[in-house]
Design goal:
Blueprint: H1 9-113, H2 115-183, H3 186-294, H4 298-301, H5 307-339, H6 355-361, H7 363-380
Helix pairs in contact: 5-7
Amino acid sequence: MSFLSIKTFPPLFLFLLLLCLCVGSKNVYAQARFNVDSATKARQAQLEISRTEQRRVLDSSRVARKAIIDSTRETMKHHLDSMRTERQGRLDSLKEVRAARAAELQAIRKHRESRQYRDSVKNAREEKLASIRDVQRVHLDSTKNARQRITDSLIDVREGATAARRAIQKRRSDSLAVIRNYRNGKRFSDSVAIFRKSRLDSLHEARKAFTDSLTTARKARLDSLKAARKVITDSLTALRKQRTDSLNIKRKQRADATAKRDDKRKRDQKIKEKQAELKFNLAIDLKIKKKRSVYSNENMLKKKWSPVRRFFQNTYTHYNYYFNANRKMDEAEANMQRSAKDNWEERIPLFDFDPVKDSTRFSADMDSVIQKTSLGIQIHDPRTK
């Protein structure tokens, strides 16, 4: 009871617990090692089986490929031998046919060179020419007979037509003689005179009636046209007057609106110019102040005005400020010359512009020139500070 007291129980319990854990971990490690070894052995056995199977498949495929290649070679060799045999047979047959044809041609050539062939050909030609002449003679005889029959029939037809034409002409001449005798008689002359007179009277009456109707229609049309023209003229005059009045009102309104808009634009432009000038002056003042602040140091003012410094400052001022001022002056003179107009009613001046009058119009350019030259002096000559 004293050994298992309350004070000694916790350390003993912890020792037993650690002992159990050590034993259990050792068993677990042994089991894990056994599982890993068994898995490794199974994997090696599986690899050996797969390698054996792959080797067997490769050997079988190699044997099958070799058999296929051998059979293909034998087939190609047999095909080539058969083609060579067939080609040789064709060549032999062609040689035999050519030899037979050459023999036939030689026999035909010998037969044509023989006297019997020549005589037979000559006799055949003579017989053919004789038959052609007989046929041509028969054809000519038949053509002559046909032409003679046609000529005889045409002569008969012409004689009949001439006799009929003569009979018709005789009947016509007889009827014309009867008509001429009737027309030369007094009865025909009187009837013709009466018909002409009645016809002339009817024509005069119809012309008079037509003229009267045309005059009446023209007068009525002229009256209607005058009335319509008067109505149209009055309406056009009224429309023109109304349109002119409306156009004058619109033009006046547009001119007023344009004048107001121009005044507003000019005021806005002046305001913008003033603002721009103020901004430019402020910018120049700021730049001058900035430059002056750089040279405001007493050491800079006491710095020696050496020839190198004088050359650098003069060069910078000449090719920057003075160059821009000269360009601005040239532009101002060009603008003055371009805007100058000669008045031929007065004395023409010697120069194209008057500096006293034109300088006021180009005061902005002159101010810019003055500012550029003064800036060059103020910035690049520290002695002026």
